[in-house]
Automatic annotation (TrEMBL):
SUPFAM superfamilies: Winged helix' DNA-binding domain
Descriptive protein name: MarR family transcriptional regulator
A Pfam family reported for this protein in Swiss-Prot or TrEMBL: MarR
Family matches, as InterPro entries: HTH_MarR-typ, MarR/SlyA-like, WH-like_DNA-bd_sf, WH_DNA-bd_sf
Signal peptide: none
Sample GO molecular function, one term: DNA binding
Stretches assigned to the HTH marR-type domain: 13-152
Keywords: DNA-binding, Transcription, Transcription regulation
Annotated GO biological process: response to stress
Lineage top rank: taxon: Bacteria
Keyword DNA-binding listed: yes
Amino acid sequence: MPKEIDFHFKSPNDSPGYLLGQVTMLWQRKLKKVLDPLDLTQTQFVLLAALGWLSKKNNAVTQVDIANQSNADRMMVSKVLRTLEDKAFITRQEHETDTRAKTIRLTIDGGVVLQKALIEVENADLDFFASLDTEISLFNKNMTQLIDNNMQ
């Protein structure tokens, strides 16, 4: 057996990565509870929300736009969009000017399920992060900084 394993941090609670992982798992578990009844996974919700957000300003939202907005892998986005199309939550049509791209749109059912999911997820977020109280703005600022500094 090798000698004792060396850890940089003295305890798991000193490790920001460990803590972020724990918070993420708990938060995802909470979201799963509210999204399951709507027949959505968290990834499906994120992509629907990205589409809904982008559609507010653009009638020709593409798969690449959705991937960029959600910071998600393009191949994974393609697969999940096919699933959302099978559920009749979105349509994919030929892009008017780019023959390589498809325009992604919410269907009426997709808009209804997205609105329900937004209400459920936003309420779950408010509940989950309530203990941060007045520190939520700083928490959000710190997360934004981490995202900005680690984008590739």
